[in-house]
Design brief:
The chain has about 300 residues and is an alpha/beta fold. The chain is built from 13 helices and 11 strands. Strands 3, 4, 5, 6, 9, 10 and 11 form a 7-stranded mixed β-sheet that branches. Strands 1-2 form a two-stranded antiparallel sheet. Strand 7, helix 10 and strand 8 form a beta-alpha-beta unit.
Length: about 300
């Protein structure tokens, strides 16, 4: 039988990225945590940690963590039904940056009204979150792909609308002869990371009808920083309309092509677990997205 206390130790050192911080969270000595994980590795006949900074789980370790996560949820249900004791298993979800920067805090607020479970959010691009769920690292995710994973369900939430924005100063500096599709390819733009290339490329091809070109883009991995960089006139950028309503109303940002919207479908995926907390979190996602997203 697996040593679930050792699995808990593994979970915490991975979550905090080191033996020292994991041990502090567990109220144990670093030596005790290290010994438990060594015994776990002996029991499963393989390494569960890649000892880098920060610590990472091996493929075997990831499978054990996914199993421990599901067991924790099932135990919470047992405690709840039998009244043995109060235990609140974390709800782990994978969510992309733009959703985190716009409406997901409302989901957290609604969920917190009824459930004390901590929520652990894994940040990943919407094209990658489903893979994170498939690997068993999380219980639910926001994804742009609708097909459910094995053992899970999915529901369409709506679409996130994106437009290309710039500040009035940026427009004056770069588009004195008028805003044009060709001109946009020659001015500084913004990318979040390597996965963001696909989003901007989709906008360029689907909305502007041009061959994607991103060589003039700065890389700036911060959703809120995107807005600040754009209002400061550093670059034009593709932003969720939800995120910049106040800046547009205040005249700080202008949509370069007001009739061109990139609509990105979003889906909520979750594993079918007997968890009141996960069910409540799913309800919160559905309710808030219904208000915030376009259909």
């Amino acid at each position: 039988m697996l040593d679930y206390r050792a699995l808990h130790c593994l979970s915490e050192v991975i979550r905090f990225g080191s033996f020292e911080r994991g041990a502090q969270a567990l109220n144990l000595t670093q030596s005790a945590v290290s010994q438990k994980i060594k015994r776990l590795e002996n029991n499963v006949s393989g390494p569960v940690l890649i000892r880098t900074k920060p610590l990472r789980a091996t493929p075997l370790g990831e499978q054990l963590l996914a199993h421990f996560q599901k067991i924790s949820v099932l135990e919470e249900q047992l405690y709840s039904r039998t009244g043995l004791k109060e235990e609140y298993a974390p709800i782990s979800v994978a969510v992309n940056n733009d959703v985190l920067a716009t409406w997901f805090s409302d989901v957290m607020s609604r969920f917190a009204l009824t459930h004390p479970n901590p929520v652990h959010i894994y940040n990943a691009d919407q094209s990658q979150t489903r893979s994170v769920l498939q690997q068993g690292k999380v219980m639910g995710c926001i994804s742009q792909t609708g097909t459910p994973v094995a053992g899970g369900q999915s529901v369409r939430l709506g679409t996130m609308d994106y437009q290309l924005y710039a500040s009035p100063e940026f427009i004056h500096r770069y588009f004195q002869e008028g805003i044009s599709v060709e001109g946009v390819l020659q001015v500084p733009g913004l990318l979040y990371d390597e996965f963001d290339v696909a989003l901007l490329s989709d906008y360029q091809s689907e909305c502007l009808g041009i061959t994607p070109y991103v060589n003039h883009c700065h890389w700036y991995p911060s959703s809120h920083g995107f807005v600040r960089m754009t209002t400061a006139g550093v670059a034009c950028s593709l932003l969720p309309t939800l995120q910049v309503r106040h800046e547009v109303a205040a005249g700080q940002l202008v949509a370069l092509f007001p009739d061109k919207h990139l609509k990105v479908p979003l889906f909520w995926h979750w594993f079918e677990l007997e968890s009141d907390a996960l069910a409540a979190f799913t309800r919160a996602v559905k309710v808030i997205s219904r208000v915030q997203l376009s259909r």
